[in-house]
Amino acid sequence: MYSSLELVLLLLGVAVVGVAVFRMLHLPPMLAYLAVGILIGPHAFGLVGDNETMHALAEFGVVFLMFSIGLEFSLPQLMSMRRLVFGLGMAQVLISIAVVMAVSLLGAYWLPSLSGITWQAAFALSGAMAMSSTAIVSKMMAERLELETEHGRRIFGILLFQDLALVPLLIVVPALANNPKEVWMTLGLAVGKAIVVLVLLLLVGQKLMRKWFHVVVKRKSQELFMLNLLLITLGAAWITQMAGLSLELGAFVAGMLISETRYRHQVEADIQSFRDVLLGLFFVTIGMLLNVQLVLENWWIVLLLLIGPFLFKFGLVAALAKFFGASPGVSIRTGIALAQAGEFGFVLLNQAGDLDLMEPLFIQVILASMVLSMLAAPFIIAKSDAIVMKLASNEWMMQSLALTQLASRSFAAQQHVIIVGFGRTGQSMAKLLDEVKIPYLALDLDPERVREAEASGANVSYGDASRRESLVAAGIHRAAALVITFANTPSALKVMHFANELAPSLPVVVRSYDDSDFDLLKSAGATEVVPEAIESSLMLTSYAMSLVGVPPRQIASLMQSARSERYAALRGYFHGVNDEREEGGLLLRLHSVRLPDGIEAIGKRLDALDFAAYDTEVVLVRRGKKRMGGQRSLVLKPGDVLVLRGTAESIAEAETHLLKHA
pLDDT value at position 95? Predict the structure, then answer.
């Protein structure tokens, strides 16, 4: 038996290793927690037994998850998505519950081994089966740049209703566990108590919350702010528990109350790490419940419960999406993303087990199938494009049409800038490029944004830059530069992979949140990485200096020095064919030169070519997909691309010298 400290150290150790491995595989940490729980649980290696302390901490993880959902609950957002949420989302949940209940009751009628399943148990099971994993899907959609796509909006409309549906399910399921003869009375009493508690919390709590938070914030203590946050969350959970309702319902209401205050974003940032750690413990305890030996003994039942619900949810969601006006490709992608089980399904399943609504053996088998479906989900979602192409006969035609339209836009473009992402940053950049008459072509995955921007005259097309075909259609071989305007490193790496393969010498500028991924992005082929945090700090510093009387010339010099140290490549830039020479041609620029066969430079070391005599330097040498910097000892070969930096005149002289024939 471990002491409390030894138990915590063991959990931290295996969790760190597990999450690190799963992150290296680009899989959600939640799957790592499940795998860790399975391995260390009493049914595998038996390192940790059934521990009440762990279950209590895990329950608090779910409490804070529900608090976060309440915090993100926005009535205006809900109304703007009402057709997807209350149309598509409600239909998915209600039909799933009805079908799973019917199948469960029919199974109990026809199969003696399932005869113990009552309609109350069938309802709890159907609610669990109706849920999908918000954690897995949101991460996969973000990494695949699909949050703002047509199927992305439908997916999150359904997930939002599932989150909302959990609240009444958490009220109804415990009520069903009482005496069947009094179930309707108990259910009515539970709903009545919920309405009274919610009205009191929402009406009285909303007025008190704003005033109380104002008092706390005026004390200017981060410690007091965090303590107050924990008090409100757990206090609201305690109130609902005392009323005979669930802890999670009170936490959800607390989140809703705080979401209406100006402190919502601060609260969200403060509680995120705390919530994620506790939620990780919840998934560890779920993994510990899985009896691997029992699963192996009943593998065919587990397999049936894995494949059956997966195919059912896929077919149902795809059919409903099609019914609500989606194309076949969008419908299939929506179905694939939501076919797996979800974390809230575990919450309902645990609740049903604690209330003795189902036999432990049956819960084990259901639990196993849900865990396996979540483990398989990331791999299936990653293959969604290939699946859609096989199942939707007209999908390739629609994609070909989109690529044809994109290619027709870029057909006449030469030395243009390809802007990946047309959000605020991309649009601001396009306006500035328009002012200096530099052509550009923007790619974005939000059809509504593309439609409106296109109508205003912007040169933007619907296209996925992480696909080779889209980059070719955008004229990457004729482009002057590629700019990735979203700060998402995994997505940027995917775009750069194909950009480097198609146009190795093309300059690529990437935006990032900070410089933590600077080396990773540079090694992947980025010509320059622009971290938001550093740039914003430089701008703030320059404004602060101007306000305290520092001369503008000195400020400009300091800022330029800071940028030169962090962004050496920003001392020059690539010109397009329409750029005018400025400052008498003295402004530094970058220029790529591909070495043909038969010139004197071939076979010579880089330091043997006297570029300094022409006031020019070699920034980097690219050989195929490999970027080798400006290594002085490098022996040049045909096909190498040299990136030169200097003034327009000095580069012209150096290029003439470099390309001199033998």
Answer: 95
Q: Which residue has the tokens 């609504």?
A: 357
Q: Give the SS3 label for residue 574.
A: strand
Q: Which two tokens stand for residue 265?
A: 């974003």
Reported as a single tens digit per residue, the pLDDT across 212-258 is 888 888 887 878 888 888 888 888 888 888 877 778 778 888 887 88
Question: How far is 553 from 550, CA to CA, in rounded Å?
Answer: 9
Q: 493-496: long-range contacts at Cβ-Cβ below 8 A with a sequence spacing of 24 or more?
A: 493/520, 493/521, 493/524, 494/466, 495/420, 495/465, 495/466, 495/471, 496/521, 496/524, 496/525, 496/526
Side-chain half-sphere exposure of 585, counting CA atoms within 13 A: 6
- Residue 484: beta bridge partners? 420, 510
Task: Compute CA distances 366 → 152, 171, 298, 315, 460, whole Å.
Answer: 28, 22, 11, 20, 48
Side by side, which strands form the sheet with 589-594? Answer: 589-594, 641-646, 617-623, 626-627
Residues 6+ apart with CB under 8 A from 171: 190, 191, 194, 245, 246, 249
Short-list 92, 48, 172, CA closest to 342: 92
Burial class (CB in 10 A: 0-12, 13-18, 19+), 194: buried
Strands 641-646, 589-594: pairing is antiparallel
Per-residue three-class SS string for 70-87: HHHCCHHHHHHCHHHHHH
Task: Name the 3-class secondary structure at 627.
Answer: strand
Strand partners, 623: 626
C-alpha–C-alpha distance, residues 586 and 593, integer Å: 20
Contact 528, 511 (CB under 8 A): no
Instruction: For residues 654 and 577, give the distance between their C-alpha atoms in angstroms, rounded to a whole number.
Output: 19
Q: How many other C-beta atoms lie within 10 A of the C-beta of residue 421?
A: 27
Alpha helix segments (H runs only) across 200-342: 205-218, 222-242, 247-259, 264-289, 292-297, 299-323, 328-337
- Provide the mean pLDDT of the chain: 80
Q: Give the residue-averaged pLDDT of 581-593.
A: 57
> φ and ψ at 78, to 5 degrees?
-65, -40
Mean pLDDT value across residues 465-491: 86
Q: Which amino acid is at 641?
A: V
More confident position, 375 or 584: 375
Q: What does the alpha-carbon distance between residue 634 and residue 640 come to, in Å, rounded to a whole number?
A: 11
Amino acid at 304: L
**Residues 627, 629, 630, 633: is their CA dihedral positive or negative?**
negative
Amino acid at 102: A
Structure tokens at 574: 């690539």
- Burial (CB < 10 A; 0-12, 13-18, 19+), residue 461, is buried
